[in-house]
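ESCALATION

Customer reports they have been waiting on this structure for their group meeting. Please prioritize. Original submission:
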Amino acid sequence: MSSKNYLFSSESVTEGHPDKLCDQISDAVLDELFRQDPKSRVAVETATTAGLVVVMGEITTHGYVEFQKVVRDVIREVGYTKPDYLFDYRTCGVLASIHEQSPDIAQGVDVNKGHEQGAGDQGIMFGFACRETPELMPLPIMLAHRLARRLAEVRKNGALPYLRPDGKTQVTLEYNDLKPKRAHTVVVAAQHDESVSLDKLRRDITEEVIKPVCGNWFDSRTIVHINGTGKFVLGGPAADTGVTGRKIIIDTYGGRGHHGGGCFSGKDPTKVDRSGAYTARYVAKNIVAAGLADQCEVQISYVIGVAKPLSVFIDTRGTAKVPVEKIEKLVVDHVSFKPADMIKNLDLLRPIYRKTACYGHFGREEPEFTWEKTDLAKKMRAEAGL
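Update from on-call: job pushed to the front of the queue and completed.
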């Protein structure tokens, strides 16, 4: 197999997957605090297991969270509403252990005389964009997300009423000459009631989920695996412990490009894990949208307490239409990677984060996702002389 012809896979999970349930709870807490106090400092982790949700972390705020209500509302909206699931919003235990942000960190992040807002931690963040989809995202992760979202849709709208909230999807695409050609394999794991037969479930998911989502990428040779063990009745936190931040590849680019390791959910945007990754995506997407390259990855790095990034690296992987040095200059001229500037540019001090916590933080067209805007593309293209 040549380097231009290969198979590439990406996965996603439904909003009822235990890890994603935790991400949504963490971001729901962040949103509730931002509704009351946009200057809240929040770093919240959630863990869940059979019959229990634990919310932990550091919060400094003038707001107040009724954790019992916020947690149970998320669990109910996701769909854990029946005792048969062995985990439901009415009967699960909810514990919270919260303390203030460390003053040692705060002194490096807070704005005061002679000190601008610094990064909330050290670390590296990446952003990526390519021409495989209209959203300028890799196609495998976009299809995997759409399959997962469709599983939730047919469960909630009654088309497949026997489905339960937990589920996973995976798509393997065949690439020829570096371009996606067809869906080689589609994998779906869907939690279900005891009453439905495996044959019916497989037929229904193929017709109601896989074919509508995959469209022309699906053909007579596409391999399909649905509930590979033959049974998926016990799921969710009753079967699998969940923790915030364990689906970082699903949250980003499905394995295309790199990842700095930091998760997003439960973190206010002074944490550059979140604001830096969003800004890196914004820059990469505008470079590709401007036609300066067909593919682009941006890396930035920080040290705690310092506003200016240590490094900004742009990699077009040989697809640049102008010298990379010119692209770098355009980025420096038009984008600031200082935390306060990133927060202002993308309007991040808003209660917008629960929506990001499932089906990906990137490639979304909703207005809350300001890092997806391409308002720099026209200007960068003109200044590059294209």
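Sent to customer with the following note: Residues 82 and 88 are 6 Å apart (CA to CA).
Escalation resolved.
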